[in-house]
């Protein structure tokens, strides 16, 4: 064992004969120090007589020897602790060296990684995907900067990719020198591509938050004249619109406009500059947690270029059914629309509206909203329809309105967070003879739904009576354990029968197609323990014949909040 005198670990020659080691220590290791005097001292301890001079001297000698032995043991204990501390220090050095070597080995291995051998064109596409998938608002500007800090090659590829520098977000508390340098860099790096500009207000009233940006940001727009996507926070809309009219820039090139109002915004009507190229608009409210806010669309009725729009969305801001009808009547060229409906039915019966160009429609119902507004809409070209609720709220299903609501061209249907009866559900899907994709996400319906989707035997097959005759893709996601204290229970037998009946070959029957894929994600509480095992076996069996079936296990969450994120802003 190494000692303080021998750090190499060799045994010290004076280990057993140190000068401070009393002669009593070896004796203690071999015999009891009381053994020689046990008889005399034992008898003395049992008697009441005082010890003699010889016995007193003998006791004092024994006490002295015990004290010397204790001191020697304490010294030895200190020596051993010193040795342990030295060994621990050496062990820490070895561990540190081991970690350093492992880090060097990892760095050396990365030099041979596949990502370093990627062609610049492929690496550029990876960068673009990274920037597009960046959810944090504050990181939009920094995404490209982060890529430039990895290595020299990544910096070279990132700087040569104009797409990474086409989306600029300016906060109204940026310092003038930062904004000027940032805007000039993005303008040069984008190389003439259409720019997306987002003006954000962090906090504070207009008088304290808008003036700085009014002084130095707006003049910086003058050399651009290429901004096609503009996103503006509320409270400063009027003044920014005034500056755009005065400078004569940006507004005439805008194709996408996003305006986010605030509850503290004034009551003035919006008066934009002429935007002849505007095609996509988002009018919404600044989100405050899970609380959904009312959007006063009446402030945009007069001067907003509704007739030019092909895409419109209120994101997560709710509007009244009357406002939705008014906006739809002013947008004859609308192709994509998203509305969140307020919690009441129509108060005044409007005129029917025909939207011949609308192809994608997302309708979100807040808690207690009614579906009677659907009876006034004619959507002959609609191919994609999404019905959802905010935070799994309940919907007032109007059966009469659903009977008159027809979607002859519907191909993709999604229900999200909806509790719906089987009859109301079939009123949506049965009129369509072209529906190929059905998605049920957090939607309560009984297991009888599977029975309604059974395909009869081929010799009994009558195409006009088959619900969803060309259904090719069916997905059921039950991510919540319960919806308003309602738990759907699934029967594996009915699921298997539905799949088996729809995976047959129907080449000889006109207007009927087989199911190609089925995705089922139940919660733990909605299926029994044997469901997953049997479903997995069936999935493997179907995969062998080319049918794509996926069964996953989901777990309940505390809440569900709708997020409507369109591909366009």
TrEMBL record:
It comes from Agrocybe chaxingu. This is F-box domain-containing protein. InterPro entries: LRR_dom_sf (IPR032675).
């Amino acid at each position: 064992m190494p000692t303080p005198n021998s750090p190499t670990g060799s045994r010290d020659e004076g280990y057993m004969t140190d000068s401070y080691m009393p002669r009593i220590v070896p004796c203690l290791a071999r015999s009891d120090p009381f053994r020689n005097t046990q008889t005399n001292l034992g008898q003395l301890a049992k008697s009441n007589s005082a010890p003699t001079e010889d016995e007193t001297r003998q006791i004092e000698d024994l006490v002295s020897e015990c004290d010397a032995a204790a001191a020697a043991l304490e010294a030895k204990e200190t020596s051993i602790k010193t040795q342990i501390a030295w060994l621990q220090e050496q062990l820490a050095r070895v561990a540190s060296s081991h970690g350093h070597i492992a880090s060097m080995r990892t760095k050396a291995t990365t030099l041979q990684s596949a990502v370093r051998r990627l062609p610049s064109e492929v690496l550029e596409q990876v960068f673009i995907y990274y920037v597009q998938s960046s959810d944090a608002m504050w990181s939009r500007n920094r995404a490209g900067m982060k890529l430039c800090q990895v290595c020299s090659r990544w910096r070279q590829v990132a700087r040569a990719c104009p797409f990474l520098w086409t989306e600029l977000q300016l906060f109204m508390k940026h310092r003038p020198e930062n904004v000027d340098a940032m805007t000039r860099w993005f303008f040069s790096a984008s190389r003439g591509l259409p720019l997306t500009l987002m003006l954000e207000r962090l906090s504070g009233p207009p008088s304290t938050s808008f003036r700085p940006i009014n002084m130095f940001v707006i003049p910086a727009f003058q050399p651009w004249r290429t901004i096609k996507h503009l996103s503006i926070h509320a409270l400063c809309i009027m003044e920014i619109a005034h500056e755009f009219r005065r400078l004569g820039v940006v507004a005439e090139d805008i194709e996408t406009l996003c305006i986010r109002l605030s509850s503290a915004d004034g009551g003035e009507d919006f008066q934009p500059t002429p935007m002849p190229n505007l095609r996509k608009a988002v009018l919404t409210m600044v989100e405050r947690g899970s609380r959904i806010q009312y959007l006063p669309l009446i402030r945009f009725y007069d001067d907003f270029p509704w007739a030019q729009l092909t895409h419109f969305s209120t994101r997560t801001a709710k509007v009244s059914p009357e406002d939705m009808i008014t906006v739809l009547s002013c947008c004859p060229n609308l192709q994509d629309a998203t509305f969140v409906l307020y919690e009441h039915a129509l108060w005044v019966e409007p005129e029917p509206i025909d939207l011949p160009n609308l192809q994608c429609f997302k309708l979100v119902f807040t808690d207690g909203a009614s579906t009677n507004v659907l009876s006034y809409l004619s959507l002959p070209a609609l191919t994609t329809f999404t019905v959802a609720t905010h935070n799994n709220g309940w919907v007032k299903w109007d059966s009469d309105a659903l009977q008159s609501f027809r979607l002859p061209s519907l191909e993709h249907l999604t229900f999200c967070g909806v509790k719906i009866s089987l009859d109301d559900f079939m009123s949506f899907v049965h009129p369509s003879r072209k529906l190929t994709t059905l998605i049920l996400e957090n939607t309560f319906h009984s297991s009888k739904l599977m029975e309604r989707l059974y395909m009869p035997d081929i010799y009994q097959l009558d195409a006009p009576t088959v619900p969803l005759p060309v259904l090719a893709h069916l997905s059921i996601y039950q991510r919540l354990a319960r919806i308003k204290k309602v738990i759907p229970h699934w029967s594996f037998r009915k699921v298997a029968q539905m799949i088996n009946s729809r995976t047959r070959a129907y080449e000889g029957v006109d207007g009927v197609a087989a199911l190609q894929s089925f995705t089922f994600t139940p919660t733990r509480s909605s299926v029994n323990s044997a469901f997953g095992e049997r479903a997995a076996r069936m999935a493997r069996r179907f995969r062998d014949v080319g049918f794509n079936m996926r069964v996953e296990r989901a777990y309940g969450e505390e809440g569900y909040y709708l997020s409507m994120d369109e591909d366009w802003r």
